[in-house]
């Protein structure tokens, strides 16, 4: 690759013989380099190359707005995330997560904090992403001396999940908010509320997550009318609540929810109700 432009010590624009113009990110990659300098392929293996033109332009616009040390830290963090997961990361994580962390650092410096209303749910639903997010937040504190706090771990986890699943962060955040709202509705209708540290609660969250994903995929879940009738007769309150939950899902997602989802939700709700009455 030949250097086209040095943006800062850690980022350059280069001309690649296979991919054309690329943004190359690497610790010290721009230090002492000039236009038309060549970069050996051995060094390129240690870098992230943003091949998507839209991601390149967004990243170049972002660079002047964030500290150069943050670029280095995020480069290392994203590289580590990439080595710990089985699937490739969407390139947009370089823009989205770096931008998010940069804004979070500025807010923290001003003493402004955002409460994460679905932190516990995020930790339960996306445990792998949450663990990686904890690593990112710890690395920022270690390298930059800024403690972002536990609420921020949840926000970072959603960005990581977005990059892993190739889903927009707005969609990922929307699904997390939907789950939190469904949980609130359940808690309002259960005598004694919910024990959020229980295994049954964890199972409920997992079920809600996959139920939403099935709805988004249009995947049909089958059950017999006889089962629905039995559950409706034996557990009328929980079946009615499950029906309300599926209607909320339909409205928020703008997609139909198969009747069978109500049946399976009823089973989870009844288990929670029985535990609360023990």
TrEMBL record:
Residues 65-170, 171-278 form the PRD domain. SUPFAM superfamilies: PTS-regulatory domain, PRD (SSF63520), SacY-like RNA-binding domain (SSF50151). PROSITE patterns: PRD_1 (PS00654), PRD_2 (PS51372). InterPro entries: BglG_antiterminators, CAT_RNA-bd_dom, CAT_RNA-bd_dom_sf, PRD, PRD_sf, Transcrpt_antitermin_CS. Keywords: Repeat. Pfam families: CAT_RBD, PRD. Transmembrane segments: none annotated. Belongs to the transcriptional antiterminator BglG family. GlcT subfamily. This is PtsGHI operon antiterminator. It comes from Saccharibacillus endophyticus.
């Amino acid at each position: 690759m030949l250097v086209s432009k040095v943006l800062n010590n850690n980022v350059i624009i280069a001309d690649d013989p296979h991919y054309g113009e690329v943004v190359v990110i690497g610790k010290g990659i721009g230090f002492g380099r000039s236009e038309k300098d060549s970069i050996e392929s051995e060094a390129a293996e240690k870098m992230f190359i943003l091949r998507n033109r839209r991601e390149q332009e967004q990243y170049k616009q972002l660079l002047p707005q964030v500290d150069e040390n943050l670029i280095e830290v995020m480069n290392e963090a994203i590289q580590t995330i990439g080595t710990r997961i089985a699937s490739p990361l969407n390139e947009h994580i370089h823009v989205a997560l770096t931008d998010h962390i940069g804004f979070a650092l500025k807010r923290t410096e001003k003493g402004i904090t955002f409460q994460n209303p679905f932190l516990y749910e995020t930790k339960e639903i996306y445990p792998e992403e949450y663990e990686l997010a904890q690593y990112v937040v710890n690395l920022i504190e270690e390298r930059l001396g800024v403690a972002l706090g536990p609420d921020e771990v949840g926000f970072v986890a959603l960005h990581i999940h977005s990059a892993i699943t190739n889903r927009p962060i707005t969609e990922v955040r929307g699904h997390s908010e939907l789950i939190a709202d469904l949980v609130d509705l359940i808690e309002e209708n259960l005598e004694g509320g919910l024990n959020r540290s229980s295994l049954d609660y964890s199972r409920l969250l997992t079920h809600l997550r996959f139920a939403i994903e099935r709805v988004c995929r249009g995947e049909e879940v089958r059950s017999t009318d006889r089962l629905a009738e039995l559950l409706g007769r034996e557990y009328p309150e929980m079946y009615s609540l499950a029906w309300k939950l599926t209607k909320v899902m339909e409205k928020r997602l703008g997609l139909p929810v198969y009747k069978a989802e109500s049946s399976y939700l009823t089973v989870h709700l009844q288990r929670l109700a029985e535990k609360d009455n023990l």
